[in-house]
Write a structure and sequence with these properties.
mainly alpha; 3 helices; elongated
Length: about 110
């Protein structure tokens, strides 16, 4: 059991960096899909009452974040994403530890 913990401890930074890069790639794909869907929805006859809203949302997203094909991620972005993932995993581990200690406290009473 302890060997697995040591291996995971040594591999975690690399895995966080890998997942950070993968997350940024997924974000770019989902952003491109969302803009495409909003553009198609604004041209559809079924969603024509909401066309103004879809066009406004599309224009605002492109103004704030730029075109999806123009997004370029460097290693700093990957490290920041991996840092965010590491923080989320740590908070979740802490929550699990607290829940277990509360459950053990009530079990002994």
């Amino acid at each position: 059991m302890y060997i697995i913990d040591v291996v995971l401890m040594l591999l975690q930074p690399t895995l966080y960096i890998f997942w950070g890069g993968l997350t940024l790639a997924h974000f770019q794909i989902l952003y491109q899909y969302a803009l495409h869907w909003l553009t198609m929805a604004s041209k559809s006859e079924y969603t024509s009452p909401f066309a103004v809203y879809f066009q406004t949302i599309t224009a605002n997203l492109e103004r704030v974040m730029g075109a999806p094909n123009a997004m370029k991620f460097n290693f700093t972005h990957v490290l920041l994403a991996s840092l965010l993932i590491a923080a989320l995993v740590s908070v979740e581990k802490l929550r699990i530890i607290i829940d277990r200690s509360i459950a053990m406290k009530y079990k002994t009473q």
